[in-house]
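User: Hey, quick favor. My workstation is busy. Could you predict this chain's structure for me?
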Amino acid sequence: MNLTATVRRLRSFTVLAACVVALLAGSGTATAQMPDMAQASGIPRPVDDLPVGSVSVRVIRGDMSNLVVGNPVEMRIGDKVTTVNTDDQGRAQFDQIVPGSPVTFSTVVDGKRLDSQPFNVQPQGGVRMLLVAADSAGAKAPAAPSAPAVTGPVTIAGESRIVIEPAEGTLSVYYILDIVNASSSPVNPEKPFVFTMPADATNTTVITGSSPLASNKGRVVTVVGPFPPGTTAIQVAAEFVVTSGSVSFSQVFPANIPEPIVLAKKEGALSMTSPQLDRVQDTFTEGTAVIIGAGAALNAGTPLSITLTGLPHHSAVPRNISLVLAGVIILIGLWAATRPGDAGADRVTERKRLISRREKMLQDLVRLEQDHRRGKVDAARYGRRREELVQALEHIYGALDEDGVGPEPTGKAGVAA
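Assistant: No problem, here it is.
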């Protein structure tokens, strides 16, 4: 499959589009919940991977892990009604619709009617949409198996993707995994479905909306069997701290991946490389600049290694300079306190120098607070700079407290203190 075909497949995946839109809008941290799929219900989405005049309607309960199978979906064109039942992926597809025809689609799930927005069939490409029913209590609990569980394989396939979102000082990584059991019976893999997030990953979380079979303890993610026939959907999030312009990580999964795909939000000079992704390209998905990488099949236990360069990050130089200056001030104070000779005069001079330095830092702190309130400095930069100033001031106050040379000079310094 070439990269153009991969891009087309990506555009056809409604769940990926919903996740990417939510993540790239800046809503995501590693502990954020997945987007509410009900907000996408009934909204037609043009795609170029369906024939002209085709509409695919997918019916789910709550999220993509709860497909509604064998449910009738109606297409209405004027007074004409056509009915198609959803397949084992929850989809009902209507073909050979005359372009320009005004259509609506509807279905009934758990006694409640779901309707699409009315729209005209486009003259190019096809349309995909979701009809999302409310997830009733207990709907997501795994059903009692209709057959005894057998030992067999599962794969990471379907709409599985890794989604990466860079931010200032952090990198959020989302594993969107469809664990597919292609047999008609529940399956227990030969080895437990367990994987460990990369060593530098923090805040690992199994996101709300995942299958109840999935859980995590620290960086270790476990999906317990047996896996029911079809798809078991899980979403795992984690963060990496960015201290330089690059981050590298490697992930090993306990099942085969027919086609690994990684999608990263394009920020500035961001680039992505991987020995396992032989097709990497800058493109646009849902109107957002992204980098998409795709590769050949990976066997279970084979590492997927990813390196990102050109990441936005905050330089540690200002903090280091402040700490060095604070250390120098302390050393000067200690040296002045232990000098022989006219130590008293020297200590008074040094105290005045410390007070002068303190006043400048207090003024810098006041200016920083004012700029923050006026929106001239972002929250991340404000927090780092304020911490640097406070640490330096603590060192100065400590030196002044240890000095003990009479009261401070009157005037501005005394007032500011």
